[in-house]
Amino acid sequence: MSLTDKQSASLLAIDPKLPMAPQIYGNIRQSILNLRLAPKQALSEKELALMLGVSRTPVREALIKLAEDGLVDIFPQRGTFVAPIRVSEVLEAQFIREALEMSVVARVAELSDPVAIARLHESLARQKRAVDHSDLDGFLAEDENFHFILSVSVNLTRAWKVIQNVKGQLDRVRVLSLPEPGQLAALYEQHLAIVNAIEAGNSSAAKRHMAKHLQQVFRTIESLLAKRAEIFD
Amino acid sequence: MSLTDKQSASLLAIDPKLPMAPQIYGNIRQSILNLRLAPKQALSEKELALMLGVSRTPVREALIKLAEDGLVDIFPQRGTFVAPIRVSEVLEAQFIREALEMSVVARVAELSDPVAIARLHESLARQKRAVDHSDLDGFLAEDENFHFILSVSVNLTRAWKVIQNVKGQLDRVRVLSLPEPGQLAALYEQHLAIVNAIEAGNSSAAKRHMAKHLQQVFRTIESLLAKRAEIFD
DNA sequence: ATTGACATATTACCATGGTAGTATATCTGA
DNA sequence: TCAGATATACTACCATGGTAATATGTCAAT
After folding, report:
1. By CB atoms within 10 Å of each CB, which of A81, A91, A98, B211 scores lowest?
2. Most trustworthy range by pLDDT among A223-227, B43-47, B64-68
3. Is the predicted pLDDT of residue B6 greater than 70, yes or no?
4. DSSP of A136-177
5. Complex-level ipTM
6. Which residues of chain B have a Cβ shorter than 8 Å from any chain A Cβ?
7. CA distance A142 to chain B (A)
8. pLDDT score of A178 more than 80
9. What is the pLDDT of residue B98?
10. Which CATH superfamily, name and number, covers A87-231?
């Protein structure tokens, strides 16, 4: 199927004053993560450039970065395709994220910075509102922000970049399971437990709750493998 | 100072049959890591392309990737420069590497795969030879391989990529301290302790030795900050 | 001597054309 | 009907030219 058929609406928001390559990257990335661009869908430089109203060069740069994220596969002289969801890569992304975020949250608990804790509580309040309104997109954005606050509060911006990169593989799986009832509330409760452990300065409890939180993905994969086999490779 | 003056010899090994951008990336990266390209040195697309006998496009792609690694700073419409060694980024790279490699080595110890253990012993033997011959470059290559074996033996190739990326920040510091006498032998002993813990299936001991091993960088930074202040920012 | 305005040079960024390599469709021969 | 050869279309990759933004050097005015 051609890209143009299904995609023309969402990919048009490019501000010509700002650097184009990062905008294009974010644009395509979002479309891949929410599965509007399906796994194995072909992505041609030329067609994307035409749709976005830019030249092929910044599109190419965006695709290269997506390939490093493992979200697209580039086959030289053959084509570029949205990467299928590979279970092994999802599990590895989970491994990396868990290793990093457990170390991060331990450090946050050790420092026990009041400003950071206040920010986390503000985030929790916004999450609660999203849960109560069943605002899925709002919750997802705030979930991202919650984990961002954790890393940045202990000055680990590079670690956050790594987490964010591998998180792409996980988000693509999670978006398939989150609409199920009760999921959002469960995630909120886990975040709350993490913050409570941080506030108590209990780093080992913080790590334990974080691990439990992140390992949600295992249950998700299991149930999806049966239902949506076609999007896996 | 111009690039052309000091760099013409080392940057010329480009094979035109293979994709150029990755070759250029590795080429420049190596030169930055061994400090032949000094921190704050200007790198212009045009000049690098001229020296390497290629066009500016693949050079640009290589520089973008190096910027993501934090090894160069790109200032749009102003110039691209070798990044100064920023202590905060070195420490964060250390944090990330430690979090990941401790989780990796724990998994290696839990699996206790005989093939992996054999490979690690072979690597140790090569390291021993390099130490006995005071072969610095040989040891560095085998050190890289040793850590590579750990990740790959438990199928964590993406984790290895992340480790390798952040390791750049650490290598640039380490290359300044490694020629000191006794350093190589100490690293070998630490590798040996790690393998022994793995062989015993003792994952917590493996983690402990790995942490001690990696934290060598703290002592290095301390001694360098005094002696070579000009390469820090 | 110092400051401000202006001209020049240099930069990264984007657009676009050319090329070698690969897949697919079409044709040929049995 | 089907296998193999050929032509066509498509791809990512590289080369190169144009452009707006920034830095630097020059010179006049005070």
Report:
1. B211
2. B64-68
3. no
4. HHHHHHHHHHHHHHHHHHTT-HHHHHHHHHHHHHHHHHHTTT
5. 0.90
6. 19, 57, 61, 64-65, 68, 70, 76, 88-89, 92-93, 95-96, 98-100, 102-104, 155-159, 162, 166
7. 24
8. no
9. 93
10. GntR ligand-binding domain-like (1.20.120.530)
